[in-house]
Design brief:
- The chain contains 4 helices and 9 strands; from the N terminus they run H-E-E-E-H-E-E-E-H-E-H-E-E.
- It is α/β, with parallel strands linked by helices.
- The strands form 2 sheets. Strands 3-2-4-1-7-8-9 form a 7-stranded mixed sheet, with helices on both faces. A two-stranded antiparallel sheet has the order 5-6.
- It is globular, with a radius of gyration of 16 Å.
- The mean pLDDT is 90.
Length: 171
């Protein structure tokens, strides 16, 4: 597990991880080197706060929460450099957050090129295929960026995207 990896020197130091999700909430064990929001029109703003469900913060904690501070659990790579890109909006009538394919694609390209991400994490998904989004993920993969995507957890048995795209690693 994580303790054996840390003893062997694998703490995430020198690795840049970009989390593309619901944004973040302030947390004493998580440090983001930068955060931003990409809207459905591709506009980049500094509004990356998650006021809805905390999903992006939870995912970030699993990846990079501080280790050895006696405050709680540690992330698997507490030494990594972590950035947050929010691509979701909250729908008050359904009580759900939704992501936009175009915003996701812009975020993936920005993470791979502008931030030179080693790893991009997308813990979001749906059932609609997008050739455009698949080409962006495949391009990030071909440039040397590992794109990790949620395989889904609802038991439907259908392909879940972006996890089913070429170049994505489904977890």
């Amino acid at each position: 597990g994580s303790n054996a990896a840390w003893r062997a020197g694998y703490t995430g130091e020198g690795v840049t991880v970009v989390v593309i999700d619901t944004g973040y909430s302030t947390h004493e064990e998580i440090t983001w080197d930068s955060s931003e929001r990409i809207t459905s029109t591709g506009e980049i703003t500094d509004d990356a706060l998650d006021n809805y469900n905390g999903h992006g913060t939870s995912v970030s904690g699993i990846i990079g929460a501080a280790a050895g501070n006696a405050l709680g659990g540690a992330g698997i790579a507490p030494g990594c450099s972590m950035r947050m890109i929010r691509v979701t909006d909250y729908n008050s009538s359904t009580g759900r957050t939704t992501a936009n394919t175009y915003a996701e694609a812009v975020a993936i390209g920005r993470a791979a090129v502008y931030y030179d991400a080693d790893i991009i994490n997308l813990s979001l998904g749906g059932y609609s295929y997008s050739e455009y989004l698949e080409s962006v993920i495949e391009g990030a993969y071909k440039s040397g960026t590992l794109v990790v995507c949620a395989a889904g957890n609802d038991g439907i048995g259908s392909d879940v995207y972006p996890a089913s795209y070429k170049g994505a690693v489904a977890v």
